[in-house]
Amino acid sequence: METPGDPPNAVPDRSRWGRLHVLDWIAIGLAVLGAVFVLTGLLPRADAEATMRRIIPILIFLGTVVVLAELTAVAGVFDALATRVAVTARGSFRALFWLCVGFASVTTIALNLDTTAVLLTPVMIALARALNVPPTPLAMTTVWLANTASLLLPVSNLTNILASDRVDLDPVPWAARMWWPQLVAVAVTALLLWWWYWRPARAGADPFVPPPPYVPPDRVLYRTALAACLLFVAGILAGVEIGIASGAAAAILVAGFAIRARHRLRPALVPWRLLVFVTGLFLVVQTIGRHGLDTVMGTLIGTDPGAEGALRAGAVGALFSNVVNNLPAYLAGEAVIAADRHTQLLALLIGTNVGPLATPWASLATLIWYERCRAAGVAVPLGRFVATSAALAVLATAATVTALLVGPGA
Predict the structure, then answer these.
(1) Which UniProt keywords apply (predicted)?
(2) What is the DSSP letter of 170?
(3) 48-87 as b/e, with b when 16 or more CB fall inside 10 Å?
(4) Of 5, 128, 352, 377, which cross-links 326 as Cys (Cβ 3.0–4.6 Å)?
(5) Torsion (CA) 194, 196, 197, 199 in degrees, nearest 10
(6) Average of per-residue pLDDT across 149-173
């Protein structure tokens, strides 16, 4: 949380062990456990080295994209975008809701869920503060749709890229197969968002008074940050590896701050917990996979080629995503599904895309979102988050797999 006297968008000081969050301890514990597995031989060194080579691009992306988001927030870009959204809604809370749902959905579909978590979360929080409304409904809109709106295109989620190789679908036929499940997933998400988060907040916020035009504190840094974000987005659309795109954009912005606001460049900008967590997670899950996880996944998913097999694949994908993370959950499930069972594989994909909501570590996007909320001083009630997100995960996964089975192209 921000303390009195902190500058806007300040990164909380986490240097003292006594102030570590429970998720900090989980990240450290995973890293230590992964190291123990390697040292004891439960995970062969060659396998561990291969895993590290595989996740280095992910670590580069996470480290640089968080720095990009932090400095972009300081430069005022998110405040400016939030003001524009508020003005467009013309004082209507319901219009604001649909604008936020559409904004989050389009960002996730066209770019990817991690981009939504990084760039849109601060916009939503800044918007809530500009309107003097509770930030939780807007923040929840971002994290829920970052996951549930990531089905329509291969670029929308890293798991989609992995699955598209297996089902051999280019973007257009992929979208033709997944547009109906995607629509169902977004509809269920919007319904629950309104009922559980936006409707209770509406009483004191409808109608609202749009904020005055935003004036950035440093126009040069503002323009530099805006250019860096546009470069990042353009790189993703052009197919540049995400770590390279985020690294180049972050480097430009860091250079700008080094010239005009050097005091803002601090070690605390580096998201150490995310990097430690991801490293430990992959080492631990790989070890577990070698010692029985693959067998368990095969037993739970089963071999039924019809509706039962698809529903089981979706349920298992969602469950294991919330236990270990959606990337290793998808890879473990993919390994036990026959290559010609495309519907079952897409059902697994739905479970690992729509379902990773009930725990903060269920997907990288959820973890990044949680980190963005903490950095902005927004306290997310974990109990309510887990309860409502788990309900959405169950309902949306079931509805979306059903849409896959009965919709066009089934």
Answers:
(1) Arsenical resistance, Cell membrane, Membrane, Transmembrane, Transmembrane helix, Transport
(2) -
(3) beebeeebeebbbbbbbbbbbbbbbbbbbbbbbbbbebbe
(4) 352
(5) 60
(6) 81
CA-to-CA distance for 156 and 393, rounded, in angstroms? Answer: 18
| Gap between the Cα atoms of 347 and 313, Å rounded | 6
Contact (Cβ atoms closer than 8 angstroms) between residue 34 and residue 283: yes
Euclidean distance between CA atoms 231 and 225, whole angstroms: 10
Structure tokens at 408: 């066009």
Q: What is the band of 324 on the pLDDT scale with cuts at 50, 70, 90?
A: confident
- Tens-digit pLDDT profile for residues 369-404: 987 888 788 888 888 999 999 999 999 999 999 999
- CB-CB contact of 62 with 274 (8 Å): yes
3-class SS of residue 289: helix
Please say whether the beta carbons of 351 and 317 come within 8 A.
Answer: yes
pLDDT at 410 (0 to 100): 66
- Note whether 69 and 119 are within 8 A (CB): yes
pLDDT of residue 20: 66
Integer Cα distance of 195 and 189 in angstroms: 10
Residue pLDDT, tens place only, 11-57: 444 444 456 666 678 788 888 999 999 999 998 998 888 888 877 88
Amino acid 206: pLDDT: 66
* pLDDT tens readout for residues 57-78: 878 887 888 888 889 888 988 8
Contact 69, 81 (CB under 8 A): no
> CB 296: neighbour CB atoms within 10 A?
15
Q: Across the chain, what does the average pLDDT equal?
A: 84
What percent of the chain is predicted at pLDDT more than 90? Answer: 32
Residue located via tokens 């495309």:
342
Which residues fall within 8 angstroms of residue 278, CB to CB, at 6 or more apart?
55, 58, 59, 62, 364
Rounded to the nearest 5 percent, the helix, strand and coil shares of the chain are 75, 0, 25
**Residue 122 zone, left/alpha/beta (φ > 0; ψ -120 to 50; rest):** alpha
Exposed/middle/buried for residue 3 (C-beta within 10 Å: 0-12, 13-18, 19+): exposed
**Which ranges constitute the DSSP H helices of 194-265?**
199-202, 219-237, 242-260
